[in-house]
Structures are given as structure tokens and as C-alpha cells.
């Protein structure tokens, strides 16, 4: 079907109806129907598209096509909110929040700090009744996210149906626990993540083990994998809406509309996350200056880069950018991004670098925003991201031997 011809015909029809006026019988209904048909044509032609699958390894591609087919199917974003910023803003309010009962564990770190882990043991699993061999998924939330985020709850719900165990890595000082040392977290420093992975693996050494990171959690996971290569107990990893190049991410977020919608709010969330630890942190930082920040860049300049010993914010952003470490990833990794994500601009996604590593596959959708990926008329229960997570995790745990020989 020639969509341009159809659209032109519909436009001529609508112009004719407008000239006739609304006094004729059924003209208003005709206009509504005509607009609806035109919008549907535009949606099907320009919005609903198959994602772009970028992978240099033919075996990895065939594995995904067979066991994770969602990455090759047309993604139909919610027809009334497909734009990236709208999807990003609405997802937290639209999607449901499955009930999850956690078991909390606090583990000590080498520097005297503590990390809060929230476990979903799934002891009622009928597929894997033996806890020692029950597959385990480590989940890493976003910048100020915790185990309470709706996207984390959905991942746990998906894992529960498959019989898997989950554990959520809450960054220091975020999930209600006290800071025992004047240190929080950042996307570049992987020491806490290394400690968590070692701890979880030591508890269940016989259990298949993989990880999934969202937004900054995905960046942190990628930086860890780039550092460790194949020397990790993780079988594979899934990455969602990671910011690949921090310089490009912050520049995008500083555009006026994006600052108004996202940047200022994120900055206040960061300030809120440290404000209750002020007594501990003001020993090393000018907290009054930190609390005056109005952008993420200003916050990172006054707080994050200083905390982790970087000479400048540029040094920190360079070290925190996963695109610089992607070549060194040594296990299978599936990365989902939307090209309309203002947190990770399309031009900053390292497509060419990914093609140089047989362990990496990128799935790029035309819509979806940042951790949005809403689909269906009323997208409360399941998003495209949830389906990618479920299929890939199941593929790795149940058919992973077909890609681990790559």
C-alpha cells in the first residue's frame, strides 16, 4: 500500500469536508472518522516499527531470534502516548505496582560502610524447589531508584512466574539505611557492585546467576563488565535505557524543555537522597553549596566527582561513560534503548563499537523514551521492556549453553 498516496487522498477529503461545513448531515462524524483513519495510517507507517537489532555474532542473533523473539517483532507503542518524553513521564503513574514481599539484608563493606539488599527468595517456586540451584537475578535500579520502583517490581513479578530468585542492589544511603561512612555511590565506581556480586554468588555458588541494570544501574553494570571481562560469576546481563555517553546525556538534559521536565527534578531527588545524611556528609562537603545545585551537572561537580577523587567533572564523566568500556565486555549482554530517549541521545549509542564485540547485542526501538516502552491501549500491567527482560532471562537460564560457546 502506498501510504503517501493514501494520506494525500485523506487530506483532500478532509479539506473538502471542511469547505462543505458542519451543517451537512454527518459531516462532523466524517471528519472524526477521516482524522482517525489518517492518524492510524501515520501510526502504522511512522511509529510502529520493528526494533533494530545490532549484533556482529550470527550465533547470538539466531539465539535471540529463537528464544527472545520479542526483539525482532514490531513494537506498537501506546497509540495515544508514543512520544519519548510523554512515555518517560507517564510510566511511573500508569504502570501497576505488583505486590512483592522482600527480605532485607545489610552487608558490610571493606571501608566500614553498609549496603542494603532486598531479596525476593521465591521459596514457593515449583520449577526450582531447591534453593541452592534456583536461578538468581541481580537487579540494579536507576539513579535514585530502589527496590520499590515499579519497573523493578515488574521484573520481579516476571521472574516469579518463571521460578527465579531476585535480589535488588540498593545504592548506599538510598533505601532508608544509615550511611556509616561519608560515601554514597556513582556510575563509575564498581567496588560496591563487585562486593554484592561476590556476596550473592558465595551464598548460592551452584545457582545460575545473571544481572539486569536500568538507567544508571545499567551504566554501573556495563562499567563493571568492561572492567572484569570474563572474570565474573555472571552468566549474562540485560541493560535497559543506559546512558552511554555521560557528556551527551547531560547536554541533552540541559536543553530548556528537558531541564524543565527532567533535569531539575532529578537534581532535587539527588539532593533529597543525601539531605538526611547531612550530618555525616558535611564533614567533607560544603552541603549548602551542594544543595544550591540546579542541574545534575552542578550536583556532580560539587558532590559526586569530589567524593570519588576525580580532578574534574570531565574526568568523572569520561570514566562513567560505558561506551568507553564496551569493547572489553566478556559475557553475553543484551542492551535495550529507544532512539527518542533524551537521557541517552541516539547519536551517542555506540552502534559501531557494539559491532566489534561478539558478546554485545543492541536492540534499538524508534519509540519508548527512558524506561518507558509503554504498549497497549491502557499500559498498566506489562511494557515492552518487561517482555524483553522476561524472554532474555528465561533464554539465558534455560538455553544459555547455546551462546556460551561463542
From TrEMBL:
Membrane topology term: Single-pass type II membrane protein
Signal peptide: none
Gene3D superfamilies reported in the protein's UniProt record: alpha/beta hydrolase
AB hydrolase-1 domain mapped to chain residues: 135-376
EC nos: 3.1.1.32, 3.1.1.4
Compartments (UniProt record): Membrane
GO cellular component: membrane
Catalytic activity: a 1,2-diacyl-sn-glycero-3-phosphocholine + H2O = a 1-acyl-sn-glycero-3-phosphocholine + a fatty acid + H(+); 1-O-hexadecyl-2-nonadioyl-sn-glycero-3-phosphocholine + H2O = nonanedioate + 1-O-hexadecyl-sn-glycero-3-phosphocholine + H(+); 1-tetradecanoyl-2-(9Z,12Z-octadecadienoyl)-sn-glycero-3-phosphocholine + H2O = 2-(9Z,12Z-octadecadienoyl)-sn-glycero-3-phosphocholine + tetradecanoate + H(+); 1-hexadecanoyl-2-glutaroyl-sn-glycero-3-phosphocholine + H2O = glutarate + 1-hexadecanoyl-sn-glycero-3-phosphocholine + H(+)
Transmembrane segments: 20-44
Superkingdom per UniProt: Eukaryota
Protein name, entry field: Phospholipase ABHD3
Amino acid at each position: 500500500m502506498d501510504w503517501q498516496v493514501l494520506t494525500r487522498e485523506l487530506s483532500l477529503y478532509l479539506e473538502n469536508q471542511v469547505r462543505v461545513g458542519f451543517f451537512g448531515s454527518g459531516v462532523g462524524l466524517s471528519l472524526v472518522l477521516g482524522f482517525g483513519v489518517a492518524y492510524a495510517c501515520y501510526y502504522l507507517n511512522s511509529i510502529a516499527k520493528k526494533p533494530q537489532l545490532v549484533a556482529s555474532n550470527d550465533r547470538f542473533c539466531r539465539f535471540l531470534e529463537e528464544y527472545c523473539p520479542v526483539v525482532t517483532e514490531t513494537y506498537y507503542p501506546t497509540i495515544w502516548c508514543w512520544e519519548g518524553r510523554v512515555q518517560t513521564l507517564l510510566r511511573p503513574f500508569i504502570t501497576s505496582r505488583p505486590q512483592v514481599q522482600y527480605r532485607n539484608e545489610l552487608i558490610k563493606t571493606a571501608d566500614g560502610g553498609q549496603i542494603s539488599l532486598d531479596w525476593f527468595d521465591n521459596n514457593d517456586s515449583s520449577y526450582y524447589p531447591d534453593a541452592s540451584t534456583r536461578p538468581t537475578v541481580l537487579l540494579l535500579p536507576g539513579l535514585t531508584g530502589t527496590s520499590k520502583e515499579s519497573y523493578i517490581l515488574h521484573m520481579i513479578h516476571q521472574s516469579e512466574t518463571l521460578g527465579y530468585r531476585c535480589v535488588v542492589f540498593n545504592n548506599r544511603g538510598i533505601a532508608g539505611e544509615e550511611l556509616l561512612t561519608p560515601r554514597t555511590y556513582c556510575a563509575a565506581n564498581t567496588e560496591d557492585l563487585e562486593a554484592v556480586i561476590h556476596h550473592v554468588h558465595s551464598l548460592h555458588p551452584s545457582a545460575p546467576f545473571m544481572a539486569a541494570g536500568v538507567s544508571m544501574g545499567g551504566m554501573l553494570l556495563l562499567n563493571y563488565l568492561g572492567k572484569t571481562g570474563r572474570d565474573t560469576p555472571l552468566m549474562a546481563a540485560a541493560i535497559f535505557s543506559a546512558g552511554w555517553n555521560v557528556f551527551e546525556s547531560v547536554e541533552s538534559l540541559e536543553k530548556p524543555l528537558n531541564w524543565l521536565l527532567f533535569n531539575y527534578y532529578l537534581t532535587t531527588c539527588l539532593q533529597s537522597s543525601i539531605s538526611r545524611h547531612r550530618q555525616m556528609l558535611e564533614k567533607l562537603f560544603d552541603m549548602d553549596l551542594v544543595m544550591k545545585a540546579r542541574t545534575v551537572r552542578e550536583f556532580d561537580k560539587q558532590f559526586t566527582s569530589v567524593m570519588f577523587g576525580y580532578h574534574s567533572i570531565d574526568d568523572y564523566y569520561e570514566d562513567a561513560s560505558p561506551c568507553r568500556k564496551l569493547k572489553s565486555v566478556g559475557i553475553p549482554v543484551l542492551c535495550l534503548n529507544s532512539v527518542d530517549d533524551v537521557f541517552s541521545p541516539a547519536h551517542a549509542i555506540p552502534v559501531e563499537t557494539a559491532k566489534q564485540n561478539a558478546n554485545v547485542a543492541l536492540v534499538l526501538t524508534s519509540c519508548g523514551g527512558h524506561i518507558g516502552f509503554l504498549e497497549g491501549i491502557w499500559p498498566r500491567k506489562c511494557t515492552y521492556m518487561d517482555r524483553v527482560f522476561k524472554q532474555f532471562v528465561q533464554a539465558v537460564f534455560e538455553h544459555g549453553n547455546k551462546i556460551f560457546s561463542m
